[in-house]
Design goal:
The complex is a heterodimer.
Chain A: H1 3-17, H2 21-40, H3 44-63, H4 69-77, H5 79-84, H6 90-119, H7 127-151, H8 158-185, H9 191-220
Helix pairs in contact in A: 1-6, 2-3, 2-6, 3-6, 3-7, 3-8, 6-7, 6-9, 7-8, 7-9, 8-9
Chain B: E1 5-14, E2 17-27, E3 32-36, H1 43-50, E4 58-62, H2 68-74, E5 76-79, H3 91-101, H4 106-115, H5 131-144, E6 149-153, H6 161-176, E7 180-184, E8 194-197
Parallel strand pairs in B: 3-7, 3-8, 5-6, 6-7
Antiparallel strand pairs in B: 1-2, 1-4
Helix pairs in contact in B: 3-4, 3-5, 4-5
Classes of the chains: A mainly alpha, B alpha/beta.
Chain lengths: 221, 200
């Protein structure tokens, strides 16, 4: 098996175990989705109106879990140096780490998202679009999140710093995804917003690894 | 294709503090060099500069006829003071991953584990291993994926006397097959080696 596939396997496995892995992420997500009706009141009409947006915001917050350890562990135990000394470009290595993070936590969260939205009262007709938004948005969250995780390498309380760096980068996908869901629920054209979400994810895949590799090299030097 | 290591007029500084300057070294295949010097003299920084992890202020680092970027990606093992092992994974997972990452395979990983007497420990999580056993696992990585240049930062420190001697045998074997070793040490290397005092 090629080194790249080996790395993806390792990263997915590590992300699966990191901070409790997908179970904790999905549990956290379920917790956020449960808190919401307690705060806004249980009237079905009001809940149904905010359900897609709430499910989507909760997803962005759950994507933050485990992100701070994405590069930190490898940095602390010396593995990042060895990953950098390879014929695979460090940019590609960083991209594989984010992909592993997405496979282990983003994809399970995406499966949970329609369930949470419907539980909050969203129309079941929305479920396929919520799943699609969560899958594509999850990629954007993983690749922009990796930027924050790599930039906070070596900082004390790096986890908090990661969240502060990353949350502004989560704003566009939250707006685009939320916009698509809103438009679909209101029988308006939703494809443009969904396409923007996809474009943001594609840009994150293209540009994120460049920033991550530069931040890793800086942390190692 | 002849591989060597030539360091010319190298100057390094860390955090605005000059460590050393005018450092020269030439190593051919089959040679080992022990870097000595007080704590903080820059031995580790020199190894990291050779590995390309930090940029020198001045001077050159060459690898004979091989392009530096290629030599660093394909011909060089770096064993820093950290072992680079994940405590939550088994010794086998870690050794096989690093072997494949560096161009070896599972059979070579098994042979390397045997060379370092780790076969019985392979199914344990790395967290269950002692410091010396972890060091041996990190060293086994270098046998599992053969590469000519070994950069070693304090390779002996957690090892007991008998393992230091056995590592000497493994190093001598590596030199005999055309390898070269640059090691930062406080205790003498268990093999004949050139000496270089850093930051004198």
């Amino acid at each position: 098996m090629s080194p790249a596939l080996e790395l993806l396997k390792r990263e997915t496995g590590l992300a699966w175990g990191r901070g409790g892995g997908p179970l904790v992420s999905v549990g956290f997500y379920a917790g956020v989705a449960t808190l919401l009706p307690l705060a806004t009141g249980p009237e079905p009409a009001r809940l149904a109106a905010i359900a897609p947006g709430a499910a989507w915001t909760g997803l962005a917050l759950a994507a933050l879990l485990g992100l701070d350890r994405l590069f930190e562990r490898d940095y602390e135990d010396g593995a990042l140096e060895l990953l950098a000394l390879s014929r695979l470009p460090l940019e590609f290595t960083c991209a594989l780490k984010c992909l592993g993070q997405w496979l282990a936590t983003g994809a399970p969260l995406a499966l949970a998202a329609p369930v949470a939205a419907i539980a909050l009262g969203a129309s079941p007709a929305l479920a396929p679009l919520i799943l699609a938004c969560a899958l594509v948005g999850g990629i954007a969250f993983a690749f922009t999140g990796g930027i924050g995780a790599s930039l906070s390498l070596g900082a004390r309380r790096g986890g908090l710093l990661t969240a502060v760096i990353v949350l502004p980068l989560f704003v566009p996908p939250v707006i685009f995804g939320g916009g698509a869901l809103d438009a679909f629920a209101g029988h308006l054209p939703w494809r443009a917003a969904f396409a923007l979400l996809g474009a943001y994810a594609a840009a994150a895949i293209a540009l994120g690894p460049l920033a991550m590799a530069a931040a890793c090299r800086n942390a190692l030097s | 294709m002849s591989l060597g290591l030539e360091i010319g007029d190298l100057a390094l500084s860390r955090g605005g503090r000059a460590l050393f300057e005018g450092l020269n070294l030439s190593l051919q295949a089959g040679q080992a060099c022990a870097l000595t010097g007080r704590n903080g003299a820059g031995k580790t920084s020199l190894l990291r500069a050779v590995a390309g992890l930090i940029a020198p202020d001045r001077g050159t680092i060459g690898f004979g006829a091989v392009e530096p970027a290629r030599a660093r990606a394909e011909d060089l093992h770096f064993l820093g003071h950290l072992d680079g092992l994940k405590t939550s994974r088994t010794a086998r997972e870690e050794l096989e991953f690093w072997a494949r990452w560096m161009g070896g395979d599972a059979d070579q990983a098994r042979a390397a584990a045997a060379a370092f007497d780790l076969t019985a420990l392979l199914d344990l999580e790395v967290r269950r291993l002692s410091a010396g056993q972890r060091r041996r696992l990190a060293l086994a990585r270098m046998i599992a994926a053969p590469r000519p240049i070994w950069l070693l930062d304090e390779p002996l420190s957690p090892l007991d006397a008998s393992w230091r001697a056995r590592l000497g045998g493994i190093m001598a074997e590596h030199l005999k097959t055309g390898g070269l070793i640059l090691a930062a040490v406080h205790d003498p290397l268990p093999i004949p080696a050139l000496g270089l005092e850093v930051g004198g």
